[in-house]
Amino acid sequence: MIKKLLIALLLLIAGAVVIFFAPAVLRPTLTHETRVMINKTTDEVWDKWTDSKNMGKWIHGFKSIETISGDPMTVGSKYKIVIENEGEVFEATETIKEVVIGEKFAFELDGDIITDVVVVTLVNKGLTTELIQSETITAKGFFWKALFYWMQSSMSEQSQKNLNNLKKFIEES
User: Fold this and answer.
1) 114 in Cβ contact with 140 (< 8 Å)
2) Does residue 54 surpass a pLDDT of 90?
3) Largest CA distance in the chain
4) Which domain holds residue 73?
5) Closest CA to 110 of 91, 85, 88, 82
6) What is the pLDDT of residues 112-168, one digit of tens each?
7) CATH number, domain at 66?
8) Is the Cβ–Cβ distance between 93 and 78 less than 8 Å?
9) What is the count of structural domains for the chain?
10) Do residues 61 and 83 touch, judged by C-beta distance below 8 A?
11) Is the pLDDT of residue 48 over 80?
């Protein structure tokens, strides 16, 4: 009886491990999109959003950003960005991939455990602006790929909270 119980317990544990790690193989890259309507013109949104001095006003846990190389707002320029969340410090290198002033900004965040490709598009709606943020996240390592699969809804929620903070900041300034 105990032997059967131990075998059942081992099978249950093995099944849980397989279920936890399966997404690392089946879906190693995560994508999500967040949107916000901002009651300001596209030029106003672009100016506030792209000013690095404002990042701490809307990005949760933002600590700092510093230039590593290149000129501001140019393709290929690199920055070191530091974010702290629940006592954990995340450092990444941000590399600008595309800039279309007033319309589109794409960059890659490369950290120890993830690479996040972010494309932000501004859509002019007259006196309002729709900001669309698309992200493609690739975790580094089998464990992180599995873990981030299970955390994807909380990551998407945090992106949405940041955009809501951005909306509030821009509309109130």
Assistant:
1) yes
2) yes
3) 73
4) 2-172
5) 91
6) 999 999 999 999 999 999 999 999 999 898 788 787 788 788 889 999 999 999 999
7) 3.30.530.20
8) yes
9) 1
10) yes
11) yes
